Amino acid sequence: MSKPMPEKPTVDGLEQVWGPVWEQDGTYRFDRDSATKDAVYSIDTPPPTASGSLHIGHVFSYTHTDLKARYERMRGKHVFYPMGWDDNGLPTERRVQNYYGVRCDPQLPYDPAFVPPFEGGDGKSAKAADQLPISRRNFIELCERLTVQDEQQFEHLFRTLGLSVDWTQSYRTIDDTSRASAQRAFLRNLERGEAYQADAPTLWDVTFRTAVAQAELEDKEMPGAYHGLAFHRTDGGEDVVIQTTRPELLPACVALVAHPDDERFQDLFGKTVRSPLFDVEVPVLAHHLAQQDKGAGIAMVCTFGDTTDVVWWRELQLPNRAIIGFDGRVRSDEPTWIESARGKELYAEMAGKTVFSAKKVLVDALTESGELVGDVKTINHPVKFFEKGDKPLEIVSTRQWYIVNGARDEQLRSTLHRRGEEIAFHPDFMRVRYDNWVGGLSGDWLISRQRFFGVPLPVWYPLDADGNPVFDQPIVPTEDQLPVDPASEPAPGYEESQRGVAGGFQGELDVMDTWATSSLTPQLAGKWETDPALYDLVFPYDVRPQAQDIIRTWLFTTVLRSQLEADVAPWKHASISGFIVDPDRKKMSKSKGNVVTPLSILEQHGADAVRYWAASSKLGTDAAFDAQNPKQIKVGRRLAIKVLNAAKFVYGFELPSGATSVTEALDVDMLAELASVIDQATTAFDGFDHARALEVTERFFWTFCDDYLELVKERAYGTATDATHETQASAVLALRAAIDALLRLLAPFLPFATEEVWAWTHETSVHRASWPTTAELPTQAAPTGLLAAVGQALIGIRGAKTAAKASQKTPVTRAVVSAPAEQRALIERAAVDLAAVGRIENLSFTDGEELAVTEIELAEQQA
Known about the structure:
The chain is of the alpha/beta class. The chain contains 24 helices and 29 strands. Strands 9, 10, 11, 12, 13, 14 and 15 form a 7-stranded mixed beta sheet that branches. A 4-stranded antiparallel beta sheet has the order 8-7-16-18. Strands 17-24-23 form a 3-stranded parallel beta sheet. Helix 19 crosses helix 24 (831-838). The longest helix is centred in the C-terminal third of the chain and has 28 residues, at 690-717. It comes from Curtobacterium citri. One of its GO terms (molecular function) is valine-tRNA ligase activity. It catalyses: tRNA(Val) + L-valine + ATP = L-valyl-tRNA(Val) + AMP + diphosphate. Monomer.
């Protein structure tokens, strides 16, 4: 491990030097054979989505995790630090579509010789019409190919960054092991009654043609307009005018609803009205969710315009008259509830049109009939989107699979609240996001997706004598048969020839939501059920690091699955990183086009510099990044360079023979200050405050370099006036002890620079060295303030020389330092060192109100 000290140390290229050494030596390998459960520190590392490139935000948050991992390893823990790759899901499919110019058509046969039209995603394939349809198997093969390529790039980036991951402990969310684990968990949910299927209104993305769960929603401000529609009372009274932003859903109207306390509509409750244009009779009902101050105070309930419609439909037991299809267009089959010739004719004109075109047809008809009341009022309002989609969601009726999550089970909801209380959130204010999510759940977790690259739901359905599937009698495999793909494998007890035949079987085509697999990362990384000894060592984990925006998805669903399967919280701690924002304080995202890719930044400035920038931000705090002027990264590079140069200077001193103790007051006080820094940094790391640990360490390091090294170097060289073997030995001992401790304090932040320096004098890695303690320092004393006081005096002497436009090497014939009595007494204890560094022939002290150099006489300067 040891290497010769270079003549001119440099931070450039250290990643290429030390990365292979760490891998070869197994520096970060998890030694399970030597580990006991109480000595393990296990990390449920976030598996990045393998769909494109990592951005600077990944570098930011993954560095935070690595800091804690390195600290715990130096504290003597056996650190279980795996890395997973989240392969399956919509982001991967979309990337494959754009990259290869293809789209999946499961009706097409497999082509073993298929070659994609192009590679590289040059923009030609962004539209579905431009994409070549291929079979499901061909599509999945392309997904596999591209994710492997992406994962190799990701691993290279993370290795360059210096993550101390154990790369032998890695997994993919789509490989056989992960698919078996996800299917096993689902089958156990099904057996315990926690998984079920139901026909229900479902949030639907018309672009991706898939169901969307509550946790995947995001609101976007969109333009809209209120239209006044006149409903006609069947008792002959005055028309009832409602305001709606979705007049195109008028054929799907099933009721009008007003608040039960609204005096304006008391005489209407229990009566009926007829819809404009279509002349369909619907009831007027009372419900507490109706808003008296919104629109006209009375709402049109349609199946389904928004999630409130779903609530009204369910609680008021209304009929389902859905008219929007899976493609986002008005369905072509004629509604049975529309009986008037005029209504049928108008609906036929709307059929097959997008909701936008259908709205125009209907508004024109309402205008012509006079049933559009008042002016159309334009507004901006929040509309629900799939977080990865670009069109508003529709609500369609489908058969889907669900897992209970406490939305309809108060006991489970209460338990999940309690599990959240058992987890220590860092920072603690992030806990409220979990609590609010659990408290606001409105439906069970919809886990089935109508996609292709994912973990198949492991069920088949028997077909009756007429060839119809019997959904309430699903056929399931045994756990030893997992993983299975019902779309390509026959059901247990059947042959492939019986697929789709009356009396045979039908395979489930849906796959699981990506979170249904990702929620099992503790199980996947710990090899649940396949390596029980390892799983018992690492589970429950010590920490889950993650981003704040997926508390409602990844964090919550992991807690849920752990509760359902093991009745415990999956980790003790949750560390939540903030976002990276651009110079305008906007969150970086691919959709905004302001993402910075990190590899060039790492290559230009070095990994230690980039890690320093990331480590300077506390957990939960957003950080700005300006690629054109990365000031903090430049500061980090300067620090790494200073570590190399300061250590070279210190290690250049030979330890005098017989040197055993630190005797000089300045040396003792420096080590006492260092002891305080060690205590503060340790406390900070224990409390997940890496930024504080860096702050106190860095501040002391610069004081050590700028003041202490300058003050004692003459004595360390043995050239100071009155220097003795004992005083020289004191300085060198103190210097060596300090730099050894500082290297270890800085090792989590600057792993490459500190390893380089450590190797000059040690046989083993600094990252396997023990975290410094105050007990190991060669002297035990309380700080007196001596180092700070002498440093301030040195600044005064330097300032006086600068004011006289003289070199710092200019000798001083005479200098007088004035200070309050207490400070004066401290400085006088280091007078020899102060005189030596200032080249002062005659140094004296007087009492004064503040510390200052009151008199100074410079020797005649040499030409």
